[in-house]
Amino acid sequence: MHREWIIRPRFGSPLRIVRWTEVESSFQESHSSHQVDAIMDALSHDEPLAAEIYHDLTGHASRDHGPIDHRAWEHLRRAFLQGHYVLASPNVGAREGRLYTDDPKEVPKQKTPVSIPKLIAALSQVWPQLNGTGLRVLAAQYVHETDGGRSCYNWNLGNMKSPKTLPHMYLATPEGSGVNRRQYRPPDPTTRFRAFHSLEEGAQQWTDYHRHLAARRPDYLTALNAGDLATVAHILGPSGVVYFTDNETVYADALQRRLREVDSQLGSSH
């Protein structure tokens, strides 16, 4: 039986719905080598579609180049291996790959959970001024903001909000605290979040935010490296830069719990 797929650029609108028997996959950030072999085999029987994807990938007008050559096929294979293009089951796409607007900067949300050791390694590469404690505090914030990675989408490690001018996605989100807490639904601007191509880009952009904050508030880096969660929450909270809108004490307590989770995975930092 044929199975229906949406073929979609990582950041952009769907290219086409295709019906392939050979390909069994799922909507994800990348495909395994075995899955890509099946995709390439299916594309070999549909060269117009292969040329269309190559044109979308490179900006080359396929009609000007005729049939795509061996180098182009290798280019396509790498694009699927690296996750620049994905196959989306329409049933899954309705839940996870949905687009809410016609804005070309909007991308579908895709789960991109990151293990704590991998996250720590990525953060240490882009912000060497963080000591071991500081790295764990940011990891605890990642765990809190993304529910342990279960709600980490498009490599947005800290649930950073986004302007319309940058690649973004929409996520239902609560804001405020207590009786003022309210749930917002896409495409309300409050639900617009940054979207990144990779863990490396996500780590770079997230730490850029924190580094710029530390440049304005030197006590912020000091608090991170000292594990002073009350000060971290105060600087990030409603009376500071409004990174979050919850109560500062509640947020600091949540970071403390999440920090214990990080320590349990990595072992004591002392």
Tally of helical segments = 11
- Order of the strands making up the biggest sheet: 2-1-3
Low-confidence stretches: 25-30, 90-95
- Give the number of DSSP strands: 7
Tally of discrete structural domains: 2
Mean pLDDT level: 83
Distance between the termini: 58 Å
Helix-strand pattern: EEHHHHEHHHEEEEHHHH
The major beta sheet can be summarized as: 3 strands, antiparallel
In percent, how much strand structure appears in the residues? Answer: 5-15%
Helix content: 40-55%
Shape: elongated
What oligomeric state do these chains adopt? single chain
Q: Roughly how many Å is the radius of gyration? A: 21 Å
Backbone structural class:
mainly alpha
What report would you give on this structure?
The protein has 270 residues and is mainly alpha-helical. It has 2 domains: 3-95; 116-266, no CATH class. The chain has 11 helices and 7 strands. The protein has helices spanning 33-44, 47-58, 62-65, 70-81, 90-95, 116-126, 132-146, 199-216, 218-226, 229-236, 248-266; strands at residues 3-9, 16-20, 85-88, 168-170, 173-175, 182-184, 192-194. Strands 2-1-3 form a 3-stranded antiparallel β-sheet. The chain has a two-stranded antiparallel sheet with strand order 4-7. Strands 5-6 form a two-stranded antiparallel sheet. A hairpin with a 6-residue loop joins β5 and β6 (182-184). It is elongated.
Key features of this structure:
270 residues, mainly alpha, 2 domains, two-stranded antiparallel sheet, 47% helix
Outline of the structure:
The protein has 270 residues and is mainly α. 47% of the residues lie in helices and 10% in strands. It has two domains: 3-95; 116-266, no CATH class.
